[in-house]
Amino acid sequence: MLSYCKEGTGRLVILCMKRGELLLESIRNELAKHGIKDAVILSAIGSLSKAVLHRVTTMDIKAVDEFITIEKPMELSSLQGFVLDGHPHFHMVISDLEKTYTGHLEDGTTVLYLAEISLLELKNTNLKRVTNAAGLAEIIPRN
Questions:
Q1: How far apart are CA 95 and CA 88, in angstroms?
Q2: Which domains does the chain have, with CATH numbers?
Q3: 111-132 b/e with 16+ CB inside 10 Å = b?
Q4: Is it the case that residue 143 has pLDDT exceeding 80?
């Protein structure tokens, strides 16, 4: 295990997204607009008309992902993760009237009625993600 302990937080960003807006792309654009490279999601709720995600399908050393697109009314119950070096890595929990889905948020996920997202800027983080030999994006120091 690797451990990082840094000190410092910055601005709070609250996004109130409306029908038809793209979830991940909008978050990415707003963070770039404000010059925020590192952040953590504090809260995320809303509704979606389209969810694009991937999830693991094996227990092999190298992960094999399944990409799925769901188009129907869904509730966004949770979105968790970090933005490191300007790159979001978020996982979500969503549900329709019959099933619950979890996985890694991908571009193309679309707001149905609204989505409310709050992010807290992290200062002095100095971390990034790189893809390792097993194909996994792991956190390492930026220097």
A1: 22
A2: 9-141 (3.30.1330.80)
A3: bbeebebebbbbeebebbeeee
A4: no
Per-residue H/E/C for 46-114: EEEEEEEEEEECCCCCCCCEEEEEEEEEEEEEEEEEEEECCEEEEEEEEECCCCEEEEEECCCCEEEEE
Of 49-53, 75-79, 134-138, the least confident: 134-138
Give φ, ψ of 31 to 5 degrees.
-65, -45
Tokens encoding 8: 């410092």
> Other CB atoms closer than 10 Å to residue 110's CB: what's the count?
18
Contact at 8 Å (CB) between 39 and 13? yes
* Cα distance from N-terminal residue to C-terminal residue, the chain: 19
By C-alpha distance, which of 45, 28, 46 is closest to 37? Answer: 28
The pLDDT score that the predictor gives to residue 45 is 97
Q: How confident is the model at residue 33 (pLDDT cuts 50, 70, 90)?
A: very high
Averaged pLDDT, 61-72: 92
CA–CA dist 62, 66 (Å, integer): 13
